[in-house]
Write a structure and sequence with these properties.
Length: 328
């Protein structure tokens, strides 16, 4: 694979140059229409390699998938805690108390940005069950993930709140040298599906359709449902992953302790999430925690924005069976 390095990089460059391009959301990289989704230029090579080289999938692997700003960090924390509830007590020395969920549950596509052989070795040495994250749309996942018995837990969010979260986030993490993106500019892009890993509707529908066709493979969750009844969904995730809680665990409060450990209030105040940076882009960990509520869109949307996005949601999701209760 090392000898292929140079050739591969040339091919990646040629590929990028051939793709349709759009300006991003106040980020220093362009978005490219790669395999029908808007992939950040800095991630195309990694996604491409992830598809090619992530082969040794284990049946016990769990992939937590999401559209950006849908509650990824929350579902990563919950899935890790649930899948490991026999190993780690939520009450003491839990890895989440000292490690940010994005570090504990690494994004698969970003893992392939560096040396491929090192990454493959690193991934193969991870303790089972291995839990990964991904923003890659279902159609672009490696065959190995789709064809193995590994499980996928997907989270999506009401597009109204997803937009508000994304607009705040991208402006927060943008380099100082770039101008802020106005809400109008961002909204125009969002309505046209132009955002990292978008369009949001095809991202959601890809996993939604698969969850219907293959319910044992993909568990489809909504941020709002999880907020409304976390207890119910934690049990659902545990059953889906094949590690249900026993009656004894339930009555001794294990589920409640997991919910508390992963709650927005607790996670945002943990020292490990309050300082330091993460990833290639050096994003401040605290920027992954803003409000953690449903219905915040009412504080941002004008009536005309509401009308426009409602019509797009209606049109794009129509006939799919996927819908969002309007939360306000
Ligand atoms: S990312 O960058 O794609 O990983 O961001 P993501 O984690 O998907 O989304 C960030 C939003 O999730 C909120 N958040 C939480 N909600 C509930 N519980 C917990 N524990 C939690 N942690 C983070 C975070 O505040 C962002 O939402 P907004 O609406 O902006 O507050």
């Amino acid at each position: 694979m090392t000898s292929m390095g140079g050739i591969q990089e040339n091919e990646d460059e040629k590929l990028i140059l051939s793709l349709p391009k759009e300006k991003p959301w106040a980020q220093p990289y362009d978005l490219y229409l790669f395999q029908n989704f808007w992939c950040p230029g800095i991630h195309i090579q990694a996604v491409n390699r992830f598809q090619k080289y992530f082969e040794a999938v284990k049946d016990s692997d769990v992939v937590v998938a999401s559209f950006p700003k849908s509650g990824t960090i929350w579902i990563k924390a919950l899935t890790f805690s649930i899948a490991n509830h026999h190993r780690f007590s939520p009450l003491e020395n839990h890895p989440l108390l000292t490690t940010n969920p994005h570090e504990l549950v690494p994004f698969l596509e970003f893992s392939f940005g560096g040396n491929i052989q090192d990454q493959i070795l690193h991934l193969s040495n991870m303790t089972e069950p291995r839990i990964f994250g991904t923003h890659t749309p279902f159609t672009s996942l490696p065959k190995s993930i789709k064809e193995s018995n590994c499980k996928l837990v997907y989270i999506c969010r009401d597009p109204f709140d997803n937009f508000v979260s994304a607009w705040n986030y991208f402006n927060k993490v943008k380099p100082m040298s770039l101008p802020a993106l106005t809400m109008e500019e961002a909204f125009e892009k969002y309505c046209n599906g132009i955002m990292d890993y978008g369009p949001w509707w095809s991202h959601m529908l890809g996993y939604w359709n698969e969850s219907i066709a293959n319910p044992n493979k993909v568990l489809f969750l909504k941020y709002e449902d999880l907020k409304e009844d976390t207890n119910f969904h934690v049990k659902r995730i545990a059953e889906f992953l094949g590690c249900p809680f026993t009656q004894k665990e339930e009555s001794s409060g294990v589920i409640q302790s997991i919910i508390k450990l992963c709650s927005f209030e607790n996670m945002k105040d943990l020292e490990v999430n309050k300082s330091g940076k993460i990833g290639r882009g050096g994003i401040e960990k605290k920027d992954f925690f803003r409000k953690g509520e449903k219905g915040d869109w009412v504080n941002y949307f004008t009536p005309s924005m509401q009308e426009k996005l409602s019509a797009i949601v209606e049109e794009k999701l129509s006939g799919s069976g996927l819908s969002f209760k309007k939360c306000s």
